[in-house]
Amino acid sequence: MKRKKRKGSIKEIDIASSIKDSFLQYSIAATVRSVPSVIDGLKPSQRRALYVLYKELNPNEFVKSSRAVGEIMGKYHPHGDQSIYATLVNMAQKDRHNRPYIESQGNFGSVLSSLNEFAAPRYTELKLSKFAENVFFQDYYRELEYTETYDNKTKEPKVLLPLVPMILVKGTDGIAVGYTSTVPPHDYRSVCESYIEYIKNRFTLSDLNWITLANMIKVKFPNNPTIEGDTIKGLLTGQGKIYMKAKYGFMMQKIKRTEYTVLRIKELPYLVSPPAFIDKLKTEKDFKEYIYGINDMSSRGEVLIDLIMTNQTNRCKILDFLKTAKCGFYTEMNYTMNLIDLDNVPRRMGLKDIYNAHYSYLEKILMKYLENLKEKYDDDLIFYEVLYVIVRDKERAKKFMEDVTNYSRLKLYKIFYKDYAIESHIVDRILNSNISILSKDSFVKDKIKETKNKLKDINKNLNNIES
User: Fold this and answer.
1) How does DSSP assign 176-226, residue by residue?
2) Cα 255 from Cα 233, distance rounded (Å)
3) pLDDT at 370
4) C-alpha to C-alpha distance for 424 and 401, rounded to whole angstroms
5) CA geometry: angle 377, 143, 433, nearest 5 deg
6) pLDDT higher for 188 or 416?
7) What is this structure's pTM?
8) How many CA atoms, within 13 angstroms, populate the side-chain half-sphere of residue 190?
9) 189 pLDDT band (50/70/90 cuts)?
10) Alpha-carbon 157 to chain mean position
11) What is the mean pLDDT of residues 19-43?
12) What is the distance between the alpha carbons of residues 115 and 113, in angstroms, rounded to a whole number?
């Protein structure tokens, strides 16, 4: 059988330019997926997961993890179910986060065994944590900027908006094309206090003031290892290192009538599991020269490992050995704060960049929220004041109630506009409310006072932001 000749022409292209253009598109997409946003400290998969748990599912009830995965994958994040479930597990692990964004039931992994060994989604349950709900889903979240989902059938927020830069509180890591991001977790209260000071004095901050703000922020891991090194440089410049070592003490112990010195480990560095630590320690070349035996008694969330020293070593020698051994007794962690800004551009950010970027967006959204809220309460005030004019006079209130009872809505529009100069939308609001309550002048009077107080607070906040 003869093959048909294909018609057409061969076009010569520059291979370098073609690869450069294709690679650039891929790298931008991969970077946005893998590097967190400076505004909410989340990657797209994490943001969509939290949004689904709040909006599509009941945030107050546990649901099967498999159901949550299905909702996320079907409506917002068309990727593999295993990667989505891994994202949910990551945000639920208490050994990984000081304040997990997801509350869990079932086996979600443990640092005592392995954080990568967790039960299948059909066996576990989860829901949005109260902490995440309070941080990301206050009333103003409805004013966020939204974008179309992958199938253009619904919308999702471009970013969520916490009141403080959660990128510092939560910590994160991510690897993209040409970019890595590693931010240690910090104490929530210390970040809040530092950020409040920034907001109060943001127009007059000197370099020395920024050092003071950075000094207020404390690194805090879910466990409590000994932290060494300068965290200030990493916070200020977006690039630095901190060092961690295990918490330990020495004791004497008799084994088979022989007394040995024991190095007791009570805490390992962040995310170092006892089994992995012991396995790596045993592979060290001089292991048997320094260590006679290992007794792992870790359980119920607490690390407890005894390293029984040989009679030929002493305390200084074993500490030097553990310092050079690549087993996890000593570890280092980078500050590499490459983050995505509002224009989806990745760049290195220090504390100044993080605070300025977060506050500028926070100010924009809060202004929009307060202006909309002011408009709502302005309408409320008109509604209650017009109503008070009617109900404070008994005869007028009686006629008002009779009209509401006897006439159709279309007729009421004309009557109320003629008699009380009430617009149709105010009439609709009256008719859709509890008439018996609204007819009480004391109730309406209290509502006028309450609405005026709310407007006073809103105007005060608007003036504070504008000034």
Assistant:
1) -SS-EEEE--B-HHHHHHHHHHHHHHTTS--HHHHHHHHHH--B--SS--E
2) 47
3) 92
4) 17
5) 35
6) 188
7) 0.85
8) 15
9) very high
10) 14
11) 75
12) 7
Give the pair of three-digit tokens for residue 58: 């009941």
pLDDT at 438: 62
pLDDT at residue 46, as a whole number: 95
Q: Which helix (H) or strand (E) holds 45?
A: helix 44-55
End-to-end, the C-alpha distance of the chain in Å comes to 82
Assess contact for 109 and 116: CB atoms under 8 A: yes
Q: pLDDT (tens digit, 9 = 90+) per residue, 292-334?
A: 999 999 988 789 999 999 888 899 999 999 999 999 999 998 8
Give 58-113 pLDDT, tens digit per residue: 999 999 999 999 999 999 998 889 999 999 999 999 999 999 999 999 999 999 98
CA-to-CA distance for 270 and 98, rounded, in angstroms?
Answer: 12
Catalytic residue (one of 123, 260, 361, 388): 123
What angle separates helix 351-391 from helix 424-431, to the nearest 10 degrees? 80
- Tokens representing 452 are 């005026």
User: Would you call 123 a catalytic residue per the annotation?
Assistant: yes
List the structure tokens of 272: 């170092």
Average pLDDT over residues 46-56: 95
Task: Quote the CA–CA distance of 331 and 246 in Å, as a whole number.
Answer: 9
Nearest CA among 273, 237, 298 for reference residue 96:
273
Give the relative orientation of helices 441-466 and 351-391 as an angle to the nearest 10 degrees: 150
Interacting residues of 242 by C-beta distance below 8 A, sequence separation 6+: 184, 219, 227, 228, 229, 230, 231, 234, 332, 333, 335
Q: Which two tokens stand for residue 78?
A: 């068309």
Q: How far apart are CA 69 and CA 125, in angstroms?
A: 11
Is-contact 427 412, C-beta < 8 A? yes
Nearest to 307 by CA among 271, 268, 260: 260
Residue 237 has which token pair? 């410049």
Query: What count of other Cβ atoms lies within 10 Å of the Cβ of residue 141?
Result: 17
Torsion region of 64: left, alpha or beta (phi above 0 gives left; psi -120 to 50 gives alpha): beta
Q: Is the pLDDT of residue 230 over 90?
A: no
Matching residue, tokens 């065994």: 113
